[in-house]
User: Which sequence fits this backbone?
Protein backbone atom coordinates (compact mmCIF):
# COMPACT_ATOMS: atom_id res chain seq x y z
CA UNK A 1 0.00 0.00 0.00
CA UNK A 2 1.39 3.41 -1.01
CA UNK A 3 1.62 5.30 2.28
CA UNK A 4 2.07 8.64 0.53
CA UNK A 5 -1.49 8.28 -0.79
CA UNK A 6 -3.15 8.08 2.64
CA UNK A 7 -3.33 10.66 5.46
CA UNK A 8 -0.94 10.51 8.46
CA UNK A 9 -3.50 9.04 10.91
CA UNK A 10 -3.85 6.00 8.67
CA UNK A 11 -0.09 5.56 8.44
CA UNK A 12 0.11 5.76 12.25
CA UNK A 13 -2.16 2.71 12.51
CA UNK A 14 -0.14 0.90 9.83
CA UNK A 15 3.07 1.60 11.73
CA UNK A 16 1.56 0.44 15.04
CA UNK A 17 0.60 -2.91 13.47
CA UNK A 18 3.58 -3.10 11.13
CA UNK A 19 3.99 -6.85 11.53
CA UNK A 20 0.77 -7.67 9.70
CA UNK A 21 -1.57 -4.79 8.80
CA UNK A 22 0.35 -3.16 5.89
CA UNK A 23 0.61 -6.56 4.21
CA UNK A 24 -3.14 -7.13 4.60
CA UNK A 25 -4.01 -3.63 3.36
CA UNK A 26 -1.85 -4.20 0.30
CA UNK A 27 -3.65 -7.51 -0.25
CA UNK A 28 -6.96 -5.60 -0.19
CA UNK A 29 -5.61 -3.12 -2.76
CA UNK A 30 -4.45 -5.94 -4.99
CA UNK A 31 -7.80 -7.67 -4.66
CA UNK A 32 -9.61 -4.45 -5.61
CA UNK A 33 -7.35 -4.00 -8.65
CA UNK A 34 -8.17 -7.52 -9.83
CA UNK A 35 -11.90 -7.06 -9.30
CA UNK A 36 -12.20 -3.97 -11.51
CA UNK A 37 -10.57 -5.76 -14.45
CA UNK A 38 -12.07 -8.13 -16.97
CA UNK A 39 -15.43 -6.42 -17.54
CA UNK A 40 -14.80 -4.91 -20.96
CA UNK A 41 -12.53 -1.98 -21.75
CA UNK A 42 -15.02 0.77 -20.93
CA UNK A 43 -16.21 -0.51 -17.56
CA UNK A 44 -12.71 -1.58 -16.56
CA UNK A 45 -11.30 1.87 -17.37
CA UNK A 46 -14.00 3.72 -15.43
CA UNK A 47 -13.91 1.35 -12.46
CA UNK A 48 -10.12 1.49 -12.47
CA UNK A 49 -10.20 5.28 -12.45
CA UNK A 50 -12.52 5.20 -9.43
CA UNK A 51 -10.08 2.92 -7.63
CA UNK A 52 -7.05 4.99 -8.66
CA UNK A 53 -8.64 8.10 -7.14
CA UNK A 54 -7.67 6.53 -3.83
CA UNK A 55 -9.17 7.28 -0.45
CA UNK A 56 -8.44 6.82 3.21
CA UNK A 57 -9.46 3.13 3.21
CA UNK A 58 -10.74 3.49 6.77
CA UNK A 59 -13.58 1.03 6.27
CA UNK A 60 -11.46 -1.90 5.02
CA UNK A 61 -8.91 -1.11 7.73
CA UNK A 62 -11.63 -1.45 10.35
CA UNK A 63 -12.62 -4.82 8.90
CA UNK A 64 -9.05 -6.07 9.17
CA UNK A 65 -8.50 -4.70 12.67
CA UNK A 66 -11.70 -6.25 13.95
CA UNK A 67 -10.94 -9.58 12.29
CA UNK A 68 -7.48 -9.69 13.82
CA UNK A 69 -4.05 -10.66 12.47
CA UNK A 70 -4.89 -14.35 12.13
CA UNK A 71 -8.06 -14.01 10.06
CA UNK A 72 -6.44 -14.52 6.64
CA UNK A 73 -7.94 -14.35 3.16
CA UNK A 74 -11.62 -14.22 4.21
CA UNK A 75 -10.95 -10.95 6.04
CA UNK A 76 -9.24 -9.52 2.96
CA UNK A 77 -12.28 -10.37 0.85
CA UNK A 78 -14.64 -8.85 3.42
CA UNK A 79 -12.51 -5.69 3.53
CA UNK A 80 -12.58 -5.48 -0.26
CA UNK A 81 -16.36 -5.95 -0.21
CA UNK A 82 -16.85 -3.02 2.17
CA UNK A 83 -14.69 -0.75 0.00
CA UNK A 84 -16.48 -1.83 -3.18
CA UNK A 85 -19.85 -0.84 -1.68
CA UNK A 86 -18.35 2.49 -0.60
CA UNK A 87 -16.94 3.11 -4.08
CA UNK A 88 -20.27 2.21 -5.68
CA UNK A 89 -22.12 4.74 -3.54
CA UNK A 90 -19.64 7.47 -4.45
CA UNK A 91 -20.10 6.82 -8.17
CA UNK A 92 -23.89 6.82 -7.83
CA UNK A 93 -23.83 9.94 -5.62
CA UNK A 94 -21.86 11.76 -8.29
CA UNK A 95 -24.50 10.81 -10.85
CA UNK A 96 -27.29 12.22 -8.66
CA UNK A 97 -25.32 15.39 -7.94
CA UNK A 98 -23.88 15.76 -11.46
CA UNK A 99 -20.58 16.27 -9.64
CA UNK A 100 -17.62 17.26 -11.82
CA UNK A 101 -14.88 16.33 -9.33
CA UNK A 102 -14.21 13.69 -6.72
CA UNK A 103 -10.93 13.88 -4.74
CA UNK A 104 -9.71 16.45 -7.22
CA UNK A 105 -10.25 14.21 -10.26
CA UNK A 106 -13.00 14.15 -12.88
CA UNK A 107 -15.85 11.88 -11.81
CA UNK A 108 -17.00 8.94 -13.90
CA UNK A 109 -20.23 10.74 -14.77
CA UNK A 110 -18.32 13.83 -15.87
CA UNK A 111 -15.87 11.83 -17.96
CA UNK A 112 -17.99 9.02 -19.37
CA UNK A 113 -21.61 10.09 -18.96
CA UNK A 114 -24.55 9.07 -16.82
CA UNK A 115 -25.22 5.64 -18.35
CA UNK A 116 -21.63 4.46 -18.00
CA UNK A 117 -21.42 5.81 -14.44
CA UNK A 118 -24.57 3.95 -13.42
CA UNK A 119 -23.16 0.76 -14.92
CA UNK A 120 -19.87 1.21 -13.06
CA UNK A 121 -21.65 1.73 -9.75
CA UNK A 122 -23.78 -1.36 -10.36
CA UNK A 123 -20.68 -3.37 -11.24
CA UNK A 124 -18.85 -2.38 -8.05
CA UNK A 125 -21.90 -3.10 -5.93
CA UNK A 126 -22.45 -6.55 -7.42
CA UNK A 127 -18.77 -7.46 -7.09
CA UNK A 128 -18.95 -6.65 -3.37
CA UNK A 129 -21.48 -9.38 -2.69
CA UNK A 130 -19.68 -11.78 -5.02
CA UNK A 131 -16.63 -11.38 -2.78
CA UNK A 132 -18.57 -12.58 0.24
CA UNK A 133 -19.84 -15.49 -1.84
CA UNK A 134 -16.38 -17.08 -1.82
CA UNK A 135 -15.94 -17.73 1.88
CA UNK A 136 -18.07 -15.24 3.77
CA UNK A 137 -20.59 -16.18 6.43
CA UNK A 138 -24.33 -15.73 6.23
CA UNK A 139 -24.03 -13.13 8.99
CA UNK A 140 -21.59 -11.09 6.88
CA UNK A 141 -23.99 -11.10 3.94
CA UNK A 142 -26.81 -10.08 6.27
CA UNK A 143 -24.74 -7.21 7.71
CA UNK A 144 -23.63 -5.88 4.32
CA UNK A 145 -27.15 -6.19 2.93
CA UNK A 146 -28.55 -4.24 5.88
CA UNK A 147 -25.94 -1.53 5.47
CA UNK A 148 -26.68 -1.29 1.75
CA UNK A 149 -30.39 -0.82 2.42
CA UNK A 150 -29.53 1.86 4.99
CA UNK A 151 -27.37 3.65 2.41
CA UNK A 152 -30.29 3.72 -0.01
CA UNK A 153 -32.67 4.99 2.67
CA UNK A 154 -30.16 7.67 3.65
CA UNK A 155 -29.83 8.81 0.07
CA UNK A 156 -33.61 9.00 -0.30
CA UNK A 157 -33.80 11.04 2.91
CA UNK A 158 -31.14 13.41 1.63
CA UNK A 159 -33.01 13.87 -1.64
CA UNK A 160 -36.26 14.43 0.25
CA UNK A 161 -34.59 17.07 2.41
CA UNK A 162 -32.79 18.76 -0.47
CA UNK A 163 -32.89 22.59 -0.37
CA UNK A 164 -34.96 22.53 2.84
CA UNK A 165 -33.19 25.07 5.03
CA UNK A 166 -35.47 24.31 7.99
CA UNK A 167 -34.52 20.69 8.72
CA UNK A 168 -33.61 19.91 12.33
CA UNK A 169 -30.32 18.65 13.73
CA UNK A 170 -32.08 15.41 14.74
CA UNK A 171 -33.25 14.77 11.21
CA UNK A 172 -29.79 15.52 9.86
CA UNK A 173 -28.16 13.09 12.30
CA UNK A 174 -30.70 10.37 11.50
CA UNK A 175 -29.81 10.77 7.84
CA UNK A 176 -26.08 10.61 8.55
CA UNK A 177 -26.64 7.50 10.63
CA UNK A 178 -28.06 5.80 7.57
CA UNK A 179 -25.85 7.22 4.85
CA UNK A 180 -22.46 7.22 6.56
CA UNK A 181 -22.35 5.66 10.02
CA UNK A 182 -24.08 2.41 9.10
CA UNK A 183 -21.26 1.34 6.78
CA UNK A 184 -18.71 2.05 9.52
CA UNK A 185 -20.78 -0.11 11.87
CA UNK A 186 -20.86 -2.83 9.25
CA UNK A 187 -17.10 -2.67 8.75
CA UNK A 188 -16.51 -3.34 12.44
CA UNK A 189 -19.10 -6.09 12.73
CA UNK A 190 -18.32 -7.84 9.46
CA UNK A 191 -14.71 -8.37 10.53
CA UNK A 192 -15.80 -10.09 13.72
CA UNK A 193 -18.43 -12.15 11.89
CA UNK A 194 -15.98 -13.61 9.39
CA UNK A 195 -14.38 -17.02 9.51
CA UNK A 196 -11.22 -17.04 11.56
CA UNK A 197 -11.85 -13.68 13.19
CA UNK A 198 -10.08 -13.41 16.52
CA UNK A 199 -11.38 -10.19 17.96
CA UNK A 200 -12.03 -11.21 21.56
CA UNK A 201 -9.93 -13.24 23.93
CA UNK A 202 -12.65 -15.90 23.80
CA UNK A 203 -14.19 -15.45 20.35
CA UNK A 204 -15.46 -19.01 20.04
CA UNK A 205 -18.69 -18.06 21.82
CA UNK A 206 -21.08 -15.38 20.58
CA UNK A 207 -20.67 -12.18 22.58
CA UNK A 208 -23.57 -9.77 22.23
CA UNK A 209 -21.91 -7.16 24.45
CA UNK A 210 -18.90 -7.14 22.15
CA UNK A 211 -21.11 -6.83 19.08
CA UNK A 212 -22.96 -3.90 20.66
CA UNK A 213 -19.65 -2.28 21.57
CA UNK A 214 -18.41 -2.58 17.99
CA UNK A 215 -21.70 -1.23 16.68
CA UNK A 216 -21.43 1.79 18.98
CA UNK A 217 -17.79 2.31 18.06
CA UNK A 218 -18.52 2.18 14.33
CA UNK A 219 -21.58 4.40 14.55
CA UNK A 220 -19.91 7.11 16.61
CA UNK A 221 -16.72 7.37 14.57
CA UNK A 222 -18.84 7.29 11.41
CA UNK A 223 -20.91 10.22 12.65
CA UNK A 224 -17.77 12.07 13.75
CA UNK A 225 -16.27 11.45 10.32
CA UNK A 226 -19.34 12.92 8.61
CA UNK A 227 -19.57 15.93 10.94
CA UNK A 228 -15.97 16.87 10.34
CA UNK A 229 -16.31 16.27 6.61
CA UNK A 230 -19.19 18.76 6.65
CA UNK A 231 -16.94 21.26 8.44
CA UNK A 232 -14.38 20.83 5.66
CA UNK A 233 -17.05 21.62 3.06
CA UNK A 234 -17.41 25.00 4.74
CA UNK A 235 -13.74 25.72 5.38
CA UNK A 236 -11.98 24.07 2.44
CA UNK A 237 -9.55 24.71 0.95
CA UNK A 238 -10.33 23.00 -2.37
CA UNK A 239 -6.79 21.68 -2.73
CA UNK A 240 -7.32 19.73 0.48
CA UNK A 241 -10.87 18.53 -0.11
CA UNK A 242 -10.78 18.03 -3.86
CA UNK A 243 -13.96 20.07 -4.33
CA UNK A 244 -15.09 23.67 -4.15
CA UNK A 245 -16.13 25.26 -0.84
CA UNK A 246 -19.87 25.10 -0.34
CA UNK A 247 -20.43 22.13 -2.65
CA UNK A 248 -23.04 20.78 -0.22
CA UNK A 249 -24.93 24.07 -0.36
CA UNK A 250 -24.93 24.07 -4.14
CA UNK A 251 -26.29 20.50 -4.05
CA UNK A 252 -29.04 21.62 -1.67
CA UNK A 253 -27.65 19.53 1.19
CA UNK A 254 -28.21 21.19 4.56
CA UNK A 255 -25.62 20.02 7.12
CA UNK A 256 -25.07 20.58 10.83
CA UNK A 257 -22.81 23.65 10.48
CA UNK A 258 -25.61 25.54 8.71
CA UNK A 259 -28.27 24.19 11.07
CA UNK A 260 -26.36 25.46 14.12
CA UNK A 261 -25.38 28.71 12.41
CA UNK A 262 -29.09 29.42 11.83
CA UNK A 263 -29.50 29.66 15.61
CA UNK A 264 -26.93 32.48 15.80
CA UNK A 265 -27.72 34.31 12.55
CA UNK A 266 -31.41 34.17 11.75
CA UNK A 267 -30.83 35.67 8.30
CA UNK A 268 -29.29 32.36 7.23
CA UNK A 269 -32.73 30.75 7.60
CA UNK A 270 -33.98 32.95 4.76
CA UNK A 271 -31.46 31.79 2.16
CA UNK A 272 -32.84 30.14 -0.97
CA UNK A 273 -30.26 27.50 -1.76
CA UNK A 274 -31.63 27.08 -5.28
CA UNK A 275 -30.53 30.60 -6.12
CA UNK A 276 -26.92 30.18 -4.97
CA UNK A 277 -24.03 30.24 -7.39
CA UNK A 278 -20.43 29.33 -6.55
CA UNK A 279 -19.59 32.80 -5.23
CA UNK A 280 -22.81 32.88 -3.23
CA UNK A 281 -21.99 29.52 -1.66
CA UNK A 282 -18.58 30.80 -0.54
CA UNK A 283 -20.26 33.84 0.99
CA UNK A 284 -22.67 31.62 2.94
CA UNK A 285 -19.72 29.50 4.11
CA UNK A 286 -18.04 32.65 5.46
CA UNK A 287 -21.24 33.65 7.27
CA UNK A 288 -21.60 30.18 8.79
CA UNK A 289 -17.98 30.26 9.98
CA UNK A 290 -18.49 33.70 11.54
CA UNK A 291 -21.17 32.34 13.91
CA UNK A 292 -18.84 29.94 15.70
CA UNK A 293 -20.93 26.96 14.54
CA UNK A 294 -17.92 25.11 13.17
CA UNK A 295 -16.28 24.80 16.58
CA UNK A 296 -19.56 23.52 18.02
CA UNK A 297 -19.60 20.80 15.37
CA UNK A 298 -15.96 19.93 16.09
CA UNK A 299 -16.75 19.62 19.80
CA UNK A 300 -19.67 17.31 18.97
CA UNK A 301 -17.41 15.17 16.78
CA UNK A 302 -14.70 14.94 19.45
CA UNK A 303 -17.31 13.86 21.98
CA UNK A 304 -18.48 11.11 19.66
CA UNK A 305 -14.93 9.84 19.26
CA UNK A 306 -14.58 9.65 23.05
CA UNK A 307 -17.91 7.78 23.24
CA UNK A 308 -16.64 5.35 20.61
CA UNK A 309 -13.43 4.68 22.52
CA UNK A 310 -15.26 4.30 25.82
CA UNK A 311 -17.52 1.63 24.30
CA UNK A 312 -14.46 -0.60 23.83
CA UNK A 313 -13.17 -0.38 27.40
CA UNK A 314 -15.25 -3.27 28.74
CA UNK A 315 -15.85 -4.98 25.40
CA UNK A 316 -13.55 -7.95 25.88
CA UNK A 317 -11.19 -6.84 23.13
CA UNK A 318 -7.57 -7.77 23.34
CA UNK A 319 -5.61 -4.71 24.54
CA UNK A 320 -3.56 -4.46 21.34
CA UNK A 321 -6.66 -4.46 19.16
CA UNK A 322 -8.37 -1.85 21.31
CA UNK A 323 -5.30 0.36 21.06
CA UNK A 324 -5.33 0.10 17.28
CA UNK A 325 -9.04 0.96 17.08
CA UNK A 326 -8.44 3.90 19.44
CA UNK A 327 -5.78 5.13 17.02
CA UNK A 328 -8.31 4.97 14.17
CA UNK A 329 -10.81 6.96 16.25
CA UNK A 330 -8.22 9.58 17.18
CA UNK A 331 -7.13 9.74 13.55
CA UNK A 332 -10.61 10.79 12.45
CA UNK A 333 -10.29 13.92 14.59
CA UNK A 334 -6.65 14.57 13.69
CA UNK A 335 -7.33 14.26 9.96
CA UNK A 336 -10.33 16.56 9.89
CA UNK A 337 -9.80 19.11 12.69
Assistant:
Amino acid sequence: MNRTAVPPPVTMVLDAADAWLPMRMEAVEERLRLLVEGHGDDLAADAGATLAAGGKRLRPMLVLLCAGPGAGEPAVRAAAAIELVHMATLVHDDVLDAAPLRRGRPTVVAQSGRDRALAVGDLLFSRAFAELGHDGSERQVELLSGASVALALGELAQRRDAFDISISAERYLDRCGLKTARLFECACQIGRAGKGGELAANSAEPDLSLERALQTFGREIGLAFQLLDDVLDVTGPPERTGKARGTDLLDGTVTLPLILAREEDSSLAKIDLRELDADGAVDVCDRVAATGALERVRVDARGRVETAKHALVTSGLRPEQRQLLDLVADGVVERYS
User: Anything to note?
Assistant: The mean pLDDT is 89. Residues 3-336 form a domain with the Farnesyl Diphosphate Synthase fold (CATH 1.10.600.10).
